[in-house]
Specification:
The protein has a domain of 56 residues: Nucleotide Exchange Factor Grpe, Chain A, domain 2 (Roll). The chain is 62% helix and 19% strand. It contains 2 helices and 6 strands; from the N terminus they run ααββββββ. β4 and β5 form a beta hairpin.
Length: 169
């Protein structure tokens, strides 16, 4: 009987060692899982912070751009105000002042990247022009702009306002 007990003890020790290895392996896997979950939570928090920061930066950039554009119009406003308060000026002085203010205004918008288009004689393009009238006249070519009622304006490739035109043929 002693032999049986001796043989059983090593088997129990072997099972306990195997169980200990399994328990150690399970604890190791649990620890890895906790680390990965922690890393995932940190990544999610970083992403949320990035998203909030991006929104804030976008709003700030929009606000800064808007302020820059509007502040460039302030000298034009000042000159219009000066012209309106000048009671002693002649018609010619007012006309010259209005032309100068108009030139200043055009410079402000061109410095902002806005360009005017739509000239008499240009070819009609439905993507750029709004035809409100059409005439048949042999003196003009096919789809030629005969008259411009309102110029069009673009910012880069983006049409801010299509030119309102009369088209021939």
């Amino acid at each position: 009987m002693k032999k049986e007990k001796e043989n059983t003890a090593p088997v129990e020790n072997e099972q306990t060692a195997e169980e200990n290895e399994e328990i150690t392996e399970i604890e190791k896997i649990k620890k890895e899982l906790e680390e990965k979950a922690d890393r995932l939570l940190r990544t999610l928090a970083e992403y949320d912070n990035f998203r909030k920061r991006s929104i804030k930066e976008k709003e700030q950039a929009y606000s800064d751009t808007k302020a820059d554009i509007l502040s460039s119009f302030l000298p034009v406003i000042d000159n219009v105000e000066r012209a309106m308060n000048n009671d002693n000026a002649s018609y010619e002085d007012y006309k010259k002042g209005a032309e100068m203010i108009f030139a200043q205004f055009l410079k402000v918008i061109s410095d902002s990247g806005v360009t005017a288009y739509g000239e008499k004689g240009d070819a009609f393009d439905p993507l750029l022009h709004n035809a409100v009238m059409h005439i048949e006249d042999e003196n003009y070519g096919e789809n030629e702009i005969v008259e411009v009622f309102e110029k069009g304006y673009k910012l880069g490739d983006r049409v801010l306002r299509p030119a309102t035109v009369q088209v021939a043929n």
